[in-house]
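Re: that chain you flagged

S.,

Sorry for the slow reply, it's been a week of failed gels. I finally had a moment to sit down with the sequence you sent. For the record, here it is as I used it:
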Amino acid sequence: MSTRHAACSCEQLRLTVEGEPVRVSICHCLACQRRTGSVFGVQARFDAEQVTTEGASRQYIRVSDEGEKRAFFHFCPDCGATVFYTMEATPGIVAVPVGAFADPSFPAPTRSVWEERRHSWLRLPDDIEHVS
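Prediction finished late last night. Pasting the structure tokens below so you have them in one place:
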């Protein structure tokens, strides 16, 4: 079983996962673009039992575009980097921004969502699942 470590920029907020992700996906929604400062977000989802956290975090709650479900983003109060989040729509799952692992060998995404907001110049792997 693999063990991976994720952290914020100052490494005050840390996370450890045991085992492989349930899914790795790219999200092109505008909220992920704003949160990451990039043109998309990439996150790995894990069963909550796979995840342990250390350090202090603050929480930002975002309501979905439909206004029905909330997402709870946990970020470092010192450097501001998001290290993990949970969503009402998927209880028992913890999502971790792949960049927080700082591991270029991390598994590639297999799913791409909110593609109607994808930047036209962005090219994705040929074998990725596309969800609008």
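What I noticed first: Residues 30-36 form the longest helix (7 residues).

Talk soon,
D.
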